[in-house]
Amino acid sequence: MAEPTPAxxxxxxxxxxxxxxxxYRDFWGRKKAVALNALDLTIKRGEIFGLLGPNGSGKTTTIxxxxxxxxxxxxxxxxxxxxAADVRKNEKIGYLPEESYLxxxxxxxxxxxxxxxxFDMPGEVRRERSEKLIKLVGLEHAKKRTLREYxxxxxxxxxxxxxxxxxxxxxxxxxxxxxxxPLGTIWMKELxxxxxxxxxxxxxxxxxxDDVQDVCDRIAILFNGDLQELGxxxxxxxxxxxxxxxxxxxxxxEALKADLKAxxxxxxxxxxTFGHPTTTLEDLFKRVVEESKARPGRRYLPSNTNN
Amino acid sequence: MFSMSPLxxxxxxEKEPPSFNGFGGxxxxxxxxxxxxxxxxxxxxxxxxxxxxxxxxxxxETRKNRLISPLMVIPGAIGLAAYLVAFGILLVAFSSEVPDxxxxxxxxxxxxxxxxxxxxxxxxxxxxxxFFMLIGFVGPFLLDLSKLRFNRVYAIARLSFxxxxxxxVVWVFLAVLLLQLFPSRWWFGGKAEEELKNIIDVxxxxxxxxxxxxxxxxxxxxxxxxxxxxxxxxxxxxxxxRFEIVLGRFFGYVGLITMALVGITIVGVxxxxxxxxxxxxxxxxxxxxxxxxxxxxxxxRKQGEDFRGTDVGKEDGYRxxxxxxxxxxxxxxxxxxxxxxxxxxxxxxxxxxFAFDIYRTTKGNEGEGVLCTFDLTTWKWDxxxxxxxxxxxxxxxxxxxxxxxxxVEDWEKISQIAQEFGRYEWLGQEVFDYHTIAFPVPESFFxxxxxxxxNKNESPLGSSIDGKPNLIRVSVKCETPSQFVGMAKWDLxxxxxxxxxxxxxxxxxxxxxxxxxxxxxxxxSISTYLAGVVSLISALLIFLLGFFLDFIAxxxxxxxxxxxxxxxxxxxxxxxxxxxxLDKTTAVSxxxxxxxxxxxxxxxxYNVIPDVxxxxxxEYVAQGFSIPGDMILINCLSAAAYTLPWLVAAYYLMKAxxxxx
Lengths: 307, 661
Hints:
The structure holds 2 protein chains of 2 kinds. Chain A is about 35% helix and about 20% strand. By secondary structure, chain A is α/β, with parallel strands linked by helices. Chain A has one domain (about 10-235): 3-Layer(aba) Sandwich (Rossmann fold), CATH 3.40.50.300. In chain A, the strands form 2 sheets. A 6-stranded mixed beta sheet of chain A has the order 6-7-8-3-9-10, sandwiched between helices. In chain A, strands 2-1-4-5 form a 4-stranded antiparallel beta sheet, covered by helices on one side. In chain A, α2 crosses α3. The radius of gyration of chain A is 23 Å and the shape is globular. Chain B has helices at about 25-50, 70-95, 115-145, 150-165, 170-175, 175-180, 185, 195-230, 235, 240-275, 280-285, 385-395, 410-420, 445-450, 500-525, 530-545, 550-555, 565-575, 585-610, 620-625, 630-655; strands at about 55-60, 60-65, 95, 110, 290-295, 295-300, 320-325, 330-335, 350-355, 355-360, 370-380, 425-430, 435-440, 470-480, 485, 490-500. The longest helix of chain B is centred in the N-terminal third of the chain and has 34 residues, at about 195-230. Chain B has 3 domains: about 25-145, no CATH class; about 150-285 and about 500-655, no CATH class; about 290-500, Sandwich (Jelly Rolls). Chain B is an alpha+beta fold. Classes of the chains: A alpha/beta, B alpha+beta. The interface of A and B includes residues 101, 118, 146 and 159 of A.
């Protein structure tokens, strides 16, 4: 993955929060819950930023505060140097909610046309952009079908298309891979990276840690409304106490193992594991599907397995 | 030349239809009332803004509450100062009893117990206070209007329209065909000449329920459903002003209702013209009379008698009567301050139409009506020329009672006399109970009235309450002994022209459109804060209360039987009839004070209720009278004046709302 462009000036700061706090209160103004507590955060232009945390940690609250869907109890949230409550900032934002909250009586074309109008886009631009996005999200075959006939994954795809209708500079994705099958998930992750490569900033929150790890440049981990960790993914997940070694064209023999153990121990370490690396299930699934596409037909036979 | 066949069309108004007379006063009262509500709204907004501020940070060191702007605070402070002046005067100088003669709640004000100048100061202070409160409350709204974009409002309006259509709401409108496709005489009996009236009456009622119900349902649930299904999240995260959502929904549903109404109106008119409507019914109702009404007063020629018409004890006291007889001193007199300038240029004549109520004290002869005499004079008529006039009539016609308009010779002679003297008599007209009858008046009579113009208060015929000189007077006398003829202001008029029935039918539909527009605005505004079902019930309740506004007015003005709720309770406990005057004890005073507080509160509630009856114009269409243009215009202004504060309230409610909370 390409490295994010480092921030150099204040103009490169897309999102900034200072002491951002959200407290939910009851009708009488009594405190019910602290959803977010004094969050200080800066997101730079051209990076993929991930918000992580368990349910109720304040991820979605942060996104809603940035979008002006909620008002802060105290503190400040700025997007493109404008207050979060200022709707003009939305001109440069694309938002994909966790569920694709779209009008199900519209078809894909009408949906994108509707959201394009909300950006006051001229008709010709709307048509051109809609066509391009429908192609991008792979819904050309279903563009005339109303959204109520769509599967959850298709709705997520058209949801992403509406988020990109204005060619936004900042894309906010709430659980972007929710409802997508493994191929859809891979497609989504590749698209997120592509958006970053085009110079856009992506802010995403997800429960799927592998997704976040795969695409995010930096992450923030929230728990009970408090910021617990903030930094580059590679740095945060790096285990400085261990050393990984990969090699090719070697046979797993006891002699090799003994030699390696001796070298490691000579340098003060100890050998923990020795064997072939495993691929991810995602890679396996991707490979099987691609092979199936290339050579259709049944491949699995009971005799091929041990069970 | 003229059809003398009796027709049945007559308008009945329990109160004066809205007009531009006293528009300045209405505006003054509106600013006072709406300003009071603006004051409350502004106070609540500022209080919430202080308690739950949303800060912007222009620099890291400075912060600004985005909910409060100088445009609110400065006019609000000026308005408050004016209100304090008014309140001070109220405390020291006035009581708040409602005078006996007040029937319209908007006329209720404080009653002076001191200097009338203080009343003027009080009135102006409340006006100025209200004006500045309106600026403070509406100002930020007006400023934000510049941020609205047509394309976005249109997109949301279109979406609302598509949503309703694709959810098959339009099929509901086809229900109207069920009613229209069958002849009304299948459903309703009655006379043949009433067929068209019945059709218009029933279809209007049905359309009312249909359009209002659909408009109400769509509007009340639209924004709450958007919030519930979270679809609103994908809208407010676009550069959409929140008020654009309100406006978009509003225009979308108004558009849908408009299209439905246009369709229903076309079907309605088509079926009336294509249908097999009885000839009498067409003659009666399929027309559009453009009329000129005068102002009615009752007079007696008996010295010193203050005659205001006789109440013959009919349950419906709408009409007052004059007793008949050759020597009867009683007259019903219509004064006309305005005369259509084209009257004096018409080729032959203008029709005077009337329909009276006959109250018989003896049976009379079967099939015979009651005889009436009509004496028409202009402001130029000189009673000193009575004998000269009589001589001219005798010379021209001998002893003949009425001229025959079809005889050109006669008509020319009478026209000359009418122009010369400014007087025209129509004698011995047989009048039937509630039958509209017409007779011709020579155009030269109007020419006489229109040549020159009396200065204010200089007309020998007197002037109207607002000081306009009377130009023409029609004096009616009943000649038949022992019979009474009952009249109301609207029972006699000059027929200015015959308009188009289709246009009049469309005007009637426009009234229904205004009513639906109000209900949609009401429901959408309420739904910006409340849930769908609660919005529906609230809007429906407020709308339905509008049909009882006249009754509420009687309570507010203290004209209802038995007084306020506390007085009624007191009478109930004491087992006293309403006619009995209450003792002047401390307890009674406390009860009456409590009722006056109740009335004051109800007066405020009264302003929140739409006057839906004023948009019901189908009676005009059914009776074959043209709906006056100025009435349509004043009602449009009234609808806007009612709708706008609700939309401004919706603007604030949406702005303050945490969409995702």
